[in-house]
Amino acid sequence: MTMDSESENLEITKAIISMATSLEIDVIAEGIETATQLTLLRDMKCKYGQGYFFPKPINSSQATNLIAAVKRW
What we know:
The chain has helices spanning about 10-20, 35-45, 60-70, and strands spanning about 30, 50. By secondary structure, the chain is mainly α. It has one domain (about 10-70). The radius of gyration is 16 Å and the shape is elongated.
């Protein structure tokens, strides 16, 4: 489902997140592909998400190496 600031799908997404929040159910947005989508979801108080906008998952060894490399900067 395409979601942007002028989309009918945005209203559906808002309703789903609102209903889940009122029922104390965590919402995980799937298929986040753009910074705009991420911003819209954050504005709707969606705490979790995944999609091509984010890097692929890595194992613990790769994560350790990445953190070490960042610390050296």
